[in-house]
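S1.2 Input.
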Amino acid sequence: MAYTKLAVKVTAGADAPERCAQAFNVAAVAAASGVEVSLWLTGESSWFALPGRAEEFELPHAAPLPELIEAVQSNGRITLCTQCAARRDITERDVLEGVRIAGAQVFVGEIMAEGVQALVY
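S1.3 Output.
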């Protein structure tokens, strides 16, 4: 089966910067390569759905997170987990333009579609 879409679920944030950066990097490279990307922010990565938070993230020798987010949005979608948003008091009004909030049912629907490769970081 040929994969035409990549779903990446990021659970790490500033608490595990290398794992976090790798997830965003893989999603951004896929998007830049023409692959349709669905990037899911869960757990500590949820904070990157808020304006200004990606700019605070630093990891030596890693691409800047705001640039990676922009690359993903160029050929994909970023979704913030409903429960993760609620636990952090994040609402639709708070998130970056283009970021949606959705739950597990939507995630499962995406990863079960034909031609989707899913990765979890």
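S1.4 Remarks. DSSP finds five helices and five strands in the chain.
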